[in-house]
Amino acid sequence: MKVSTRTGKRIKPHYLMLLCLGLAGSMLAACGTDSVQNASGQVGTNQGAAEVPRTGGNAQEGPQGEQTFKDDLGHEIQISGQPERVFAPYLEDSLLKLGIKPVAQWSNGNLGHSYLQEELQDVPKLDFSGGAPSSEVLLSYNPDLIILHTSNYAGDGVYENYSKIAPTYVFNNAAGDVEKSLETLGQLVGKTEEAKQALASYHQKVGEAKAAIEKKAAGKKVAVIRFAAKGVSVMGGNYLCGYVLNQHLGIEMTKLTENENSLNLSLEILPELDADYIFVINAYGQGTDRMKEMTESSIWKGIPAVQQGHVYEVNDEYWLGSGLIAYEKIIDDTVKLMAE
């Protein structure tokens, strides 16, 4: 520590002795604080210093700002500073909301999240159709943080291999509660304020949409029918677009899905479909034949919603998406179709 004096002023001997005693006392007191200098000259915390939990999260503060997080599977990871190269397949929507572009994006074959491609056009795709990419492939992207959106991705030794490359955080199911997972992502990547702002903006949008729908379509029921390669189903109000409509916008779903996340739909069940509005999804363009078969049937044409012209094919790109960007687009569509 340097002691400076004013130019031209001389310190008297007895003042100098008092000053030295004061400095010695300060140095002894500093040894009792939570910063000490080790043999390599680096500053660290005392061994007896406790980690400080962060408010509202699962992080703990460690040496030099290092944070410890526990994921949904019980793994503990340490993150120092703000990650710059993030790999979070199927969480690209939420990352973009936080202002982050990943080092690579999820894809099924060569198809990524179509509604995000304008923002992700320069981000390479990694094909997950055959399972998670090998650690050798991932290593080439040099990530400093890996986030897996579902525990299904972590099996078969994937977690063990990925965690050797970079700290790896695993959600049990990030799509189950997009708002909560966005908050966690914000903590992991050092973007907590951005997460709060994104959620506040979304909640405002939800409030405005609810008011518009209540004014024009109060008490109306909806059904979301998904036509896919493997079959036809009615989506319930607990996940993806159904969650947005039911849990966020407060729209009642058809009674067919009261106790179901998804219900297989056949021509036999079709007459029981009690909905004032029907939203149709052709999943990834693979349900065309099934959709044609059902919608051209006399049973379909006899449904009240069909006769009233309240059937709309919606964009599968984001109606099957998971993240606030997708949710906001779903809300825009719903307001336009039900309240304008």
Question: What does the model show?
Answer:
This protein has 340 residues and is α/β, with parallel strands linked by helices. The protein has two domains: 133 residues, Nitrogenase molybdenum iron protein domain (Rossmann fold, 3-Layer(aba) Sandwich); 124 residues, Rossmann fold, CATH 3.40.50.1980. 35% of the residues lie in helices and 17% in strands. The protein contains 13 helices and 17 strands. Strands 12, 13, 14, 15, 16 and 17 form a six-stranded mixed sheet that branches. Strands 3-4-5-6 form a four-stranded antiparallel sheet, with no helix packed on it. β8, α3 and β9 form a beta-alpha-beta unit. The termini are far apart.
Kindly provide the radius of gyration, computed on alpha-carbon positions and rounded to a whole number of angstroms.
28 Å
Please give the CATH class of the largest domain. Answer: Alpha Beta
CATH superfamily of the largest domain: Nitrogenase molybdenum iron protein domain
How many DSSP H or I helices? Answer: 13
Return residue spans where pLDDT drops below 50 for at least 5 consecutive residues.
Answer: 1-57
Mean pLDDT: 85
**β content, as a range?**
15-25%
Helix content: 25-40%
Number of strands: 17
Run of helices and strands: HEEEEEEEHEHEHEHEHHEEHEEEHHHEHH
Task: Assign the structural class, choosing from mainly alpha, mainly beta, alpha/beta, alpha+beta, or little secondary structure.
Answer: alpha/beta
CATH topology of the largest domain: Rossmann fold
CA-CA gap between termini: 71 Å
Morphology: globular
Quaternary structure classification: single chain
Question: How many domains would you count in the coordinates?
Answer: 2
Q: From the coordinates shown, what is the CATH architecture of the largest domain?
A: 3-Layer(aba) Sandwich
User: Main sheet, how many strands, which sense, barrel?
Assistant: 6 strands, mixed
Organism: Paenibacillus woosongensis
Signal peptide: 1-29
Domain Fe/B12 periplasmic-binding: 83-340
Main location: other
